[in-house]
From TrEMBL:
Organism: Domibacillus iocasae
Keyword Zinc: no
Pfam families: MptE-like
Domain 6-hydroxymethylpterin diphosphokinase MptE-like: 160-332
Coiled-coil residue windows: 137-164
Top-rank taxon: Bacteria
InterPro entries, sorted: MptE-like
Name of the protein described by the UniProt record: 6-hydroxymethylpterin diphosphokinase MptE-like domain-containing protein
Keywords from the UniProt entry: Coiled coil
Length: 415
């Protein structure tokens, strides 16, 4: 790997030769303009007065533009290539950045800690810097890529989410703060609508009838559960778009609580005539104030209803939680279980992942891979008293989770 300072039309920048290819930070023509464009885009998203975390030093032009625009906000910078950072500190670029009192360089080992403490809108990535991340930090690089995809997805739907939020708040439904630890001491099952759900329905029906284990469901899985005579203890909807209406159309659950994200599609929420609870999500700034005012928690969403439901179940006191129907893959080339509105045949997939049995490979997608990684990260940071089981018995293998048969989980000794 070779680092070279090169001249451009407006200001010097840095070129990195890696794997016989050249990477130029910012632009080989006008790095200042490119850095300004990057900073302006960031300024549209960041939460004012909160600290900022930037991954990637680059040539520093983007950091300088950001520091100039936000002189009273602390900007933490993490570079994942230590060799590059050592070299960078010998250049005039570094001396220029050091002149900004609000910029702090942080060691790589602090990255995870900062990620948990800094608002997701204030986590920024210099994309070219990701091209020089060494193999030892490939997992962090992939996590940041997934993080950016989720941020972009939220940004693309922000208007829709905001409209739903305003309408949902007017419903004045209670939150979940008063339900903290309601199910402590109870085993819990999180039911998703993956293709493997079909084979688990008979045993789930037995578990349901025994009334010893709490069953929580994602909205998509409600219809196949009801068709098998299973009424979940509660279920969740989070998507801000109209197609979620198919999940609840024709369903009457007058005694079953619906937990819904504050930005979930409003008309879908109105379909439910039973009890409702609004759930405030971390990362959607408009939800932070009402959550604080009501003493309600901010839940992590992870981008999917199952990931949001998991964090909610933990808040409700779950200490032994099992996944069912969480394939995170296209088992038998199917997207969902039978009797779901979203079910379809999936062909021509190119991505594969390790299967549940750790022997074979199963087809998957980028989105499903992002969700799987979220489950894996969640398992890594979970408290010691939380036991997580994958009882899907199909689909993808989820690192960090204990893979057991649903019948085994059924008979585990309760805490």
């Amino acid at each position: 790997m070779k680092f070279t300072i090169i001249e451009t039309r407006t200001a010097p920048t840095i070129q990195v030769e890696i794997n016989e290819q050249n990477r130029v930070f910012h632009s080989k023509y006008d790095p200042l303009k490119e850095a300004e464009t990057w900073a302006n885009k960031a300024l549209e998203e960041v939460e004012v007065n909160d600290p900022i975390l930037v991954f990637g030093i680059g040539a520093g032009h983007h950091i300088m533009k950001l520091a100039e625009a936000l002189p009273k906000q602390t900007i933490h910078v993490v570079e994942l290539n230590s060799k590059y950072e050592q070299w960078f500190r010998t250049t005039s670029f570094y001396e220029t950045i050091r002149s900004f009192e609000n910029v702090r360089f942080q060691p790589i080992k602090e990255a995870a800690s900062f990620l948990t403490r800094i608002h997701q809108n204030n986590v920024l990535i210099q994309k070219t810097a990701m091209d020089i991340v060494p193999e030892e930090f490939e997992s962090i690089k992939e996590m940041l890529k997934d993080f950016q995809i989720q941020k972009d997805s939220i940004k693309n739907q922000i208007d829709n989410m905001t409209t739903n939020f305003k309408k949902n708040v007017r419903l004045q439904d209670p939150g979940i703060g008063e339900l903290k630890d309601k199910y402590r001491g109870k085993k819990m099952i999180l039911v998703s609508a993956g293709p493997s759900l079909d084979k688990q329905l008979p045993l789930l029906k037995q578990i349901h009838d025994e009334k010893e284990i709490i069953i929580a469901s994602v909205g998509t899985a409600v219809k196949p559960l009801l068709k098998s005579g299973i009424t979940p203890d509660f279920f969740m909807v989070i998507d801000p778009n109209e197609p979620t209406m198919h999940q609840l159309e024709g369903i009457n659950l007058p005694n079953t609580p619906l937990f819904y994200l504050s930005t979930a599609y409003h008309n879908t929420i109105l379909l439910h005539k039973g009890p409702r609870r609004i759930v405030w999500q971390n990362g959607f700034q408009k939800a932070h104030l009402p959550a604080d005012e009501r003493n309600d928690p901010l839940m992590e969403t992870g981008g999917s209803v199952a990931t949001a439901l998991l964090d909610t179940m933990v808040f409700l006191g779950g200490e032994q939680i099992a996944l069912v129907g969480q394939d995170l893959a296209f088992t038998n080339s199917m997207s969902h279980a039978s009797n779901t509105a979203a079910g379809r045949k999936v062909e021509g997939t190119v991505m594969v992942t390790k299967s549940y049995n750790q022997i074979d490979k199963v087809p998957t997608s980028k989105n499903l891979t992002i969700y799987r990684k979220w489950f894996e990260r969640y398992a890594k940071k979970k408290p010691l008293n939380l036991k997580l089981y994958n009882c899907t018995e199909g689909g993808a293998y989820i690192d960090g989770w204990e893979h057991v048969k649903l019948s085994t989980f059924q008979h585990l000794t309760k805490k």
